[in-house]
Write a structure and sequence with these properties.
single chain; about 200 residues; alpha/beta; 2 domains; five-stranded parallel sheet; two-stranded parallel ribbon
Length: about 200
């Protein structure tokens, strides 16, 4: 009697778990089929970061970063991968995200001053997972303009080029990005670490 109950309970639990997994997978496949959303997994992200590394490595005669500066969140994931491949140290730039659509840099002025002391006169590679209007990256670029000797920006996903003028994107802002993952809006692409639908600029 007890064993029958335990087996029945086990089947129910397994069924629920498989149901959740199957439902999520079907949603991803449906979204991809309709072209609504690109859902990236860990392998996709690794391949994208490797693509960024190859682009940066080809550019090393004119630009070799001393530091990889990841924008807090997905930018730090990209920074960590590139830092391993480029064998450079990682730093993090944190933003005040009380308004998620309009992050403000820096979050902690004292912490930023310490960051300035480290990167002053150095070559800095700024990394981000996704850029929408390029507002965040422009803010960071202005912030580092008088600090870093030279800075370049690497992003996995940027808007399609035909949207740049509508979004006011500087065509020279993105130094390295992955064409395969250009998006039509932040809601059309999803990274593994995006649990909440937080807006990107």
């Amino acid at each position: 009697m007890i064993w029958d109950i335990l087996w029945a309970f086990l089947f129910v639990v397994v069924g629920l778990v498989l149901g959740v997994i199957f439902e999520e997978r079907m949603r991803e496949l449906y979204a991809r089929a309709r072209g609504q959303k690109k859902v990236l997994n860990q392998n996709d992200v690794a391949a994208a970061c490797e693509g960024l590394f190859n682009k940066i490595n080809r550019d090393k005669t004119t630009f070799e970063p001393d530091y990889i500066l990841g924008i807090d969140g997905g930018g730090c994931v990209v920074a960590s991968y590139l830092a391993q491949r480029l064998k450079k140290p990682v730093l993090e730039l944190s933003a005040d995200r009380r308004d998620p659509l309009y992050p403000k840099f820096p979050k902690d002025p004292q912490e930023f001053q310490h960051l300035v002391e480290i990167i002053k006169g150095k070559n800095v590679l700024v990394t981000e997972d996704l850029s929408n209007t390029s507002g965040t990256l422009r803010d960071v670029q202005k912030l580092l303009k008088s600090v870093a000797q030279k800075q370049k920006i690497a992003v996995i996903s940027v808007p399609h080029k035909h949207l740049w003028s509508d979004k006011g994107v500087d065509p020279y802002l993105y130094d390295y990005y992955i064409e395969k993952y250009c998006h039509k809006g932040p809601c059309t692409i999803k990274f593994p670490w995006q649990v909440w639908n937080i807006g990107h600029r």
